[in-house]
Amino acid sequence: MTMPQQQRPRKPYCKGRLCLAVRQYQSNPRQSLRRLVAAYNVPESTLQTHLRGTPSRSKTMSVNRKLQAIGEQSCSVDPRP
After folding, report:
1. Spatial separation of the C-alpha atoms in residues 21 and 75, rounded to whole Å
2. Each residue of 5-56: pLDDT tens digit?
């Protein structure tokens, strides 16, 4: 019987520190990501995602949507009489 792996607790971080870390990296791309992670106390994977330019989930359209934006507009009912 194997023991379940314990998940590491997530580091609390704010978007301000993440933005500062991204700006610092953009001004000096030769700087180590691990040093930035330690200096700004942000998750390494989150910093890498932002540096790659991957858009957040809230800003992308879900692949499971049945209608595109045009279809939703044409199907919506106008509440005005």
Report:
1. 44
2. 666 666 677 889 989 999 999 999 899 999 999 999 999 998 999 899 887 7
Nearest to 37 by CA among 56, 57, 11: 11
Cβ atoms of residues 33 and 44 within 8 Å:
yes
Q: How far from 20 is each of 30, 35, 44, CA to CA, in Å?
A: 16, 13, 14
Compute the distance between CA of residue 22 and CA of residue 73 in angstroms, rounded to an integer.
37
3 state DSSP class of 31: coil
45 is in which domain, residue-wise?
Answer: 11-53
Domain count, the chain: 1
For residue 20, being part of any structural domain is answered with yes
